[in-house]
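To the wet lab folks,

You asked to see what we're planning to order before we commit. Fair enough. Below is the target structure as tokens, and below that is the sequence we designed to fit it. If anything looks off to you, flag it before the synthesis order goes out.
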């Protein structure tokens, strides 16, 4: 998969924008060797670019970002301020708006509709979302404590935390002590997940493994910071150009994968099994 026709080309020093998707649930796939793979299905809902951000910080450095919005909503449930913002970008009102930091060469024209082909099967991504809330839980469920003895000498305290304090010195409980409390419902990032399949017709991205969040929750998907950026930069600096991207991936759509690019690609793109199971395997 190659870059768009704008002349821009992805480099290891480039940071592309991410996408906003909806988690549709989990299913299974089988690779070329017959191994069963659990996958999570993410779907794009009219994900469009609404703004390009450029800010000069106090230290004279520049901050660049691409603002992305997804999931159409009725005008009557949208505030007037946001209606004006969407009208200026010439896009329909959206339910969620997020911005992704990028490099100066990765800005995307406002109003561009992004496609699932933004991610290439075989590459690795990070998925960010709020985890499933579990409510107030004890130490055994929350921190995997083994509990107290369930035989002699313990009276109805089998699942309790046990002693939490110390002696007169320090005479208090240290901050951060693992105790019972609210579990889940916080922002989490699942790192280095492999993209195994892309459906450009339905805008589906199949990712190996599980991602945080309940079904139908909005999730943020971006290129993996560790596998796709840090390792690529090290190999690029050392002259190992054949190891910059995962095996059998020549390039990434840059600055973004759009609907126009998706029309030129097959409706379904699948990663071979060796690209799914072995990240950054040296080429033959």
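Sequence we intend to order:
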């Amino acid at each position: 998969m190659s870059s768009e026709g704008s002349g821009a080309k992805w480099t290891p020093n480039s940071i592309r924008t991410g996408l906003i998707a909806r988690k549709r649930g989990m299913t299974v796939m089988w690779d070329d060797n017959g191994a069963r793979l659990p996958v999570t299905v993410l779907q794009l809902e009219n994900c469009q670019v609404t703004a390009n951000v450029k800010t000069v910080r106090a230290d004279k450095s520049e901050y660049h970002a691409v603002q992305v919005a997804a999931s159409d909503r009725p005008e009557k449930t949208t505030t007037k301020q946001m209606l004006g913002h969407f009208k200026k970008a010439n896009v329909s009102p959206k339910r969620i708006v997020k911005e992704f930091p990028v490099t100066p060469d990765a800005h995307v024209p406002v109003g561009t509709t992004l496609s699932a082909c933004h991610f290439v099967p075989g590459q690795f991504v990070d998925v960010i979302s709020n985890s499933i809330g579990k409510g107030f839980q004890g130490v055994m469920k929350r921190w995997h404590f083994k509990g107290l003895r369930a035989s002699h000498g313990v009276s109805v305290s089998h699942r309790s935390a046990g002693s939490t304090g110390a002696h007169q010195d320090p005479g208090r409980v240290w901050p951060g002590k693992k105790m019972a409390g609210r579990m889940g419902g916080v922002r989490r990032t699942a790192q280095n997940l492999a993209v195994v399949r892309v459906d450009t017709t339905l805008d589906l991205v199949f990712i190996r493994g599980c991602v945080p969040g309940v079904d139908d929750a909005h999730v943020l998907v971006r290129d993996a910071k560790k596998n796709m950026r840090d390792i690529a930069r090290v190999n690029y600096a050392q002259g190992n150009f054949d190891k910059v991207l995962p095996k059998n991936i020549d390039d990434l759509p840059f600055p973004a994968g759009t609907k126009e690019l998706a029309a030129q690609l097959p409706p379904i793109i699948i990663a071979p099994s060796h690209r799914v199971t072995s990240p950054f395997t040296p080429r033959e």
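Structural context that might help your review: The chain is about 15% helix and 30% strand. Residues 225-237 form the longest helix (13 residues).

Thanks,
Computational group
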